[in-house]
User: Fold this.
Amino acid sequence: MTVSMWWFFSLIMTSSYTANLAAFLTKANMEPTIDGAEALSKQTRVKYGLLESGSTESFFRNSNFSTYQRMWLNMQQFKPSVFEKNNSDGVNRVKTTRNGLYAFLMESTQIEYVVATNCELKQVGSWLDTKSYGIAMPMNSPYRSAINKAILKLQESGELGELKKKWWLKERDEELCDSTADDDDDGAELALANVGGVFLVLGIGVAIAFVLAILEFLWNVRNVSVEEHMSYWEALKVEFKFACNIWITKKKTKPASSVSSGSSKSNKTDNKSIMHSILHSAAGSFMNLNNIKT
Assistant:
């Protein structure tokens, strides 16, 4: 029984692992690999867009780099339109598009904040261009030098980095994001809930086999007690000791005292019969001799 349950368990687990591995490899081969702007520009399955009338749009429209020019032409040809009126609409479109077939291009600072506060989103590729932010001030403003010095001081001391960590990551749920990332990386990974029934069948089979083994042992003890003319508890004690001692391969079927007692009694009976036969024969011989003399 135990061997059968273990065989069934091994068969199901092996089949499940093989099927899961095949599905994982098939999914990995079917999914497009997008790791940057170059890969994005060479395919049309994943649509991509940006903020309408923004700095990112101006960058692509005025770029002289062939990759960015190709991306701009593709974005103009995509139907329906891939341009959004604000960044929130673009982020929502990324979330609601099935199978992740839409990408939204934003400025790096905004992307970092959105990704940090939304575990289901991720940033792909590196920066397309580097520009700095500036604060508009009136001409010849007396505050210009003071503000420049204050910003440089905050940057050199690392204070700006600490502020970024504080406000960019304050709403991030690390446990939730870790579990989401694991789900994305593992794909269709088998969890305990998927194979829990197999373990349940194995446990039930082992339990049934254990109960049957105990019943078979008790039935064997009863047969031994009847065959060897022993009490049930005495036979149970002998059989249990034999079962626990794995080094003993042979067991005594009867206690030594009972066997020797029975042997001595039978020997005495046989000796008496032999002596009686001898005496009877001798008496008959003497009688025959007397008859001859007379």
